[in-house]
Amino acid sequence: MQGKKENQKGQTLIIVILTMMMALAVGISVSSRFLKSVNVTTRSDSSNRSLAVAEALAERLLVKPYATLKGYIDFGNCGTECALTINGEDGISATAGAVLSYVGNSTSALSVSLKRNKSIEVDLTDYTANKTLSVCWNNPSTGGEASITGFLVYGNGSSTYVLSNFAYNSLSSVYSSNGFSQAATNFGYTNCFNIAGQTTPKLLRLKSVYNDVDAFVIPAPGVSLPIQGILIKSTGSVKDLTRVVSVIKSAASLPTSFDYAIQMKSTTTTFSN
User: Fold this and answer.
1) What parts of the sequence cross the membrane (predicted)?
2) What phi and psi, each to the nearest 5 degrees, are found at residue 79?
3) pLDDT digits (tens, 9 = 90+) for 61-91
4) Number of domains observed in the structure of the chain
């Protein structure tokens, strides 16, 4: 009997130890999950604050006059105007710094996002005389080919300006009966067309028809496109987390209605393009 009781005590002790170990394991697991949850929440909060301060600085710079931002770039310094700190009530600080650079002002292709039936403008002031331009695009991955229309405005050597129209379909367009010219493959793009150089180029207007499309304006080899806008790259930081916000302040341009107004056949004829 004595041996049986001692064996039962031993079994009871083992059960107690196992129970304690299981409780400890559960406690460690719960604590681990809690700490992970706290860490995720903290990082999420820091990420949100980083984004908020980056956006705040970008918005502060966006409302400044275009000439002011251009001056910051030309002089190579915008000082405290390109920095922002937001101190939270919990003692955590969010800081942001911005870098400004020109859009365009380069021999590289200029990316332009064309929305259906909405015009965009490319400034050609100071573009080299008598140098061609190319406009290229690939078909949207979502399907539905786009066509691109527009015109070039240039000086004719006197005090007047001349408008040269163009309209091109994609290679695989189903709208071949619209009378547009057909684009050709070039520069690694599915669709491209060239615009002849002129003596005094002033501006290029582009509009997408049938579908939205991302297009590229490509200058002649060795020739730079003029400045088209200012890129504001704002980086926000909280502790070891950073978020980046990039926005473009475009140069002043005319609305889509300008395309119709400038091509009116007379003051008594309705708008047409």
Assistant:
1) 12-35
2) 50, -135
3) 999 999 999 999 999 989 999 999 999 888 8
4) 2
